[in-house]
Design goal:
The complex is a heterotetramer of chains A (102), B (554), C (253) and D (356).
Chain A: H1 14-35, H2 42-62, H3 70-96
Helix pairs in contact in A: 1-2
Chain C: H1 6-10, H2 33-68, H3 70-78, H4 82-107, H5 111-141, H6 153-156, H7 162-166, H8 174-213, H9 223-247
Chain D: H1 6-17, H2 29-61, H3 77-105, E1 113-120, E2 123-127, E3 133-135, E4 137-141, E5 146-152, E6 157-161, E7 166-170, E8 176-180, E9 186-192, E10 205-210, H4 212-221, H5 228-238, E11 263-265, E12 271-273, H6 276-284, H7 307-318, H8 323-335
Parallel strand pairs in D: 1-5, 4-10
Antiparallel strand pairs in D: 1-2, 2-3, 5-8, 6-7, 6-9, 9-10, 11-12
The chains are: A mainly alpha (102), B mainly alpha (554), C mainly alpha (253), D alpha+beta (356).
Amino acid sequence: MSEQTEHTHHIVSPKIYVVILLCLLAGTAATVWASFLELGIWNPIVALAIATGKAMLVVLFFMGVKYSSKLTKLTAISGIFVFMALIGMTLADYMTRAWGRW
Amino acid sequence: MSATILSLPDQSTARIPKTNFITKENGLLSWLLTSDHKRIAILYLISITFFFFIGGALAGLIRLELLTPQSDLMATDTYNKVFTMHGVIMIFLFLVPSVPATLGNFFIPMMIGAKDLALPKINLLSWYLYVVGGILVVYTMVSGGVDTGWTFTTPLSTHYVNTNVMSTGMAVFIAGFSSIFTGLNFIVTLHKMRCPGMTWFRLPLFCWAHYAASILMVLGTPVLAIAIVLLALERTVGIGVFDPTKGGDPLLFQHLFWFYSHPAVYIMILPGMGVISETVSTFSRKRVFGYTAVAFSSVAIAVFGFFVWAHHMFIMGISNYAVLVFSLLTMLVAVPSAIKIFNWTFTLYKGSITFETPMLYSFGFMGLFTIGGMTGVFLGASGTDIHLTETYFIVAHFHFVMVGGMLMAFLAGIHFWWPKMTGRMYPEKLSQLAAVVTFIGFNLTFFPQFILGTLGMPRRYAAYPPEFQVLNVFSTAGATILGVGYLLPVLYLTWSLKYGEIAGDNPWQATGLEWQTQSPPLTENFVVTPIMDHEAYDYEWLEKQQAKEVASVG
Amino acid sequence: MSDSPAIAHGALAEAGDSHEEHPAYQRHHFNSVEQQADTTNFAMWLFLLTEVMFFGGLFTAYHIYRNWYYPAFVAGSHQLDVFWGTLNTVTLIASSFTMAMGVWCAETRRKNGLVVSLVLTFLLGTVFLGIKSIEYHEKWEKHHVPGFHYSLQSFINPASDPAAAAYGDKPLALDMARHTELYFFLYFAMTGMHALHMIIGIGILGFMIFRARAGAYTSGHVTFVENFGLYWHFVDIIWIYLFALLYLISRHQ
Amino acid sequence: MNEISPVLWQFLVKWMTNFALFPPEASKIAPQMDALYFFMVLVSLIGLTIVILLVVSFSILYSKERHPHAVQIEGSTLLEATWTIIPLGLFLIMFVWGALIYFRVYTPPANAMNIYVVGKQWMWKAEHPGGQHEINSLHVPTGQPVQLTLISQDVFHSFSIPAFRVKREAIPGRYTTVWFEATTPGTYHLFCTQYCGTNHSAMIGDVVVLTPDDFKKWLAGSTSGNSLAQDGERLFASLSCTACHNTRPDARGPSLANVYGSKLTLSTGESITADDAYLRESILSPSQHITQGYAPIMPTYQGQISEEGVIALVEYIKHLDSDYRIQQTTTTTDLLPESEGTVAGQQPKPQGKVNP
């Protein structure tokens, strides 16, 4: 085979799925609760942090990236990287517009 | 002329092999429902040539109009519709799909020793999406055209024109998905379908270039899709996302549009570079100089290609500090192209060079792409961009890179692999003449436009001040020669289908796996899956192979 | 938008011309079943990348307009019901869980377990869409659908609207109130695109339940279920971000 | 062909005499930009000749007859390094030089004379502060930095003067600026270079550069009677801005005297300098620009005032502090008959008395 398929077909046991489910539900509760607090600038940061945490759980366990090949991990990371490039560099323009005079 | 490496079988006895991918099944349905990557490549080749000549005719109309300072050949809004259609057809229906969908589809599986692409049905779906997009573009042309330019600048395209922006947008949206599926197919195939022994650094550079272009296709095109969906929503429902009176920002559309459209120019040029690596290596009988450098510079272009898009917007009022960032990154992305040009040049060193048509087109590519690349740096440096942007300097720059670069490479690839695709040779002398005519016509057409650009003649003008007329007359004269140069190949290539000499398996004695099987190839490409036991461009291995064959036959 | 995972269909078993012995569902151009499974899995991941970039454009627009018109976004998000939003998130997480269980059942060849979890995922998905349609209907009633004679009533004087009054919103100036239309455009664009992906997913789920009952996926060939699982989890992740960004901008008094 | 037909002859004469190869250099920035341009042309020519020389010489030296057996060469990291670092070095030089020119062109000096330019589908309208209004033409003096504040009323346009080497996009919804200092008197082309619809190619005009005293004569000769500030003052009154922005201590709106250029703290706590863009934004979407301590009750005028009207208002507010304006406002208010200034039952407060 061209590339040794290290994708040994790892079957994730349901116990892990249940634990992840509970973590996700806890995360949802936490983020809803956090949004009722007055945290000023920290509100969006906390909300996004919890959302990213939940997303990581889903990606690593439900989608099984944790057990899959380096290639799948690289694909996921490159996708996020270009997504960040789009948002980051566009916002860089909008944030620095006020610095110079127009 | 000098000696040639062409070695054809004895014409009296040579025959086209009885069973090959063309004769395996016949009937229209066997072509329209095929999942054979080679047949899909032929379908693409026919549809792409059709759209290329519509775009070419529109280019001719533009050049005729610009023969005189006044706009007298056609009304100004007709001229606007003609150059918009020229842009949309040439970019979305010719430049983006041409080399990947025809030569890439046909040869990537053969080069890596696979029976077919990883997802054949998706490949066919990609062609059908292309055809649906094409039909929508033809419908747009027939039912009144669109006059927003291929860049669909908002708020012009959303509030100030009443032409078919919606149908063009849908056409580009659907053709975009065709490009996504082609790119996705190539990445999966190159990762998962390589034959035993075919490591990444034994892959032909053609495959590396397509791998890089496919990354851009897969990650860039969806952003264009969302930009068009938002444009359509803004135009129909008036949601205000790009409309300043409702608080939206028209520059947001520019950001989303150019986030795809700059990687799109690398999607167009990288496959062309892949073809040039193959032709330069074969016709100088040498391994490409600095194989890893060329391979990694393709991937470097793909990675850096995502961070430079705002150099199209330097004068549009984005923040001065963002201009610094994007101008610096544009300079970085220009370096890999320079590396590739010098590597091809040094491949010729100590080679054994012959000057068949593919090599003439490759020389044309190297010269014109160098000029095109350098003038890109003029526009990347933010200072000179103020004066040169949105003038004919830009038109000259991207025509040098796209027509001088990509189209020359496409013609080089078509001539190089024609014997493998059809089993027939094209007429050598006539095609060398066509290559030289194209080169001369090209330079006469687009070099004056650089001077017009520095003079400040704006893009997309139907009428211009009289002192620009002389250069425009040269440009139109060049365009007629270019037109002839592009018509010739269609004639003699179709002629060669019936009357061309029988090419045999390896007319150019090239080292790629695709040359080690019959031409035209079998449907499953190889009788037994090849084992790759030699480096990418191993001419010694080829000589041993031919010596073995002579010994076994003798 | 024909973006249903046609890829998954591509991997469906067709009797390839098997000159050497291999299972019926292996397509002719693959050398082994692992290669085929690996390939379609990788193809699915690449397809999900295109979806990430597709939603990326919307997220960029969201970030810019949220910074520019923050008060309008706060007032707009008060119009959304946190209860429905949380319930939807819980529903979708649960459906992700049942989908994961479904993949586990397919891998361990438990036919009934597979059918039950797929049906549960199907039901949870429809519940999600039901809740969504309730919310959309409520927006339609209040004329908060951008472009269709959008009314600023509940932003100019929030007292008249119980949802806004609950948070004691101060009345917005007219021009800021107008920008709430941008908020609702982003709301409908993002959740609408997400709902479209849900509808496609539920359609394929129905097809899969029908095939699973015929025992198609519990005889070793699980790639179709696995790939659909990836797609479903991806749609769940998108909703996790949408919930955080659209519903929870600032819920404190 | 014994003699050339008159028709063809007329073309040949016109072509040979009316044949341009390089734009004139008519502004201070032009020679600097041309220096960078010719540096780049030089580098490109050198690069091109190197590539062509190498390709041609290798093709001759190593053609098949002269060199039938190719020598396989793997590559050389030294050569790879040279043609990575040298192009990178050259490109970085161009980057820095270009960025310097870019910042010079798009950062107007303080003493620049401001002219407003409004792009509208298919014409340019230049508005001089002194009240001169020009369509598709722009008169500027030599030796004096001139800043253009551009805005578009509908779609993207781009104000381009090739002879000055300056170009700036006119965007709907936001001011963009560019400045230049003309050096040689004459008439130069003005183009719209961003595609803006059917008559995009007719949206052209002339930039007439005059010596300072010719420019004064022209100013005097073509004034429309009212300066922009006076137009702004009349609009300020007719839109009943004086109802809140007056000089009385209990005024509901902040006093606008000396507001231009001052540092303001907004109700959101951030502090910002009040420049043209800020004044325009606070007229059209006031709720984000409420000065601290005032209620957000100002209505939005989005869609009620044309771009020229906003320019006139901004001009008026900018000149509310200079003595010339106070004297100018008082005389204009006296000239205004009492009735004309009233709006629906509201008595206009005389705006003349601005707090000292």
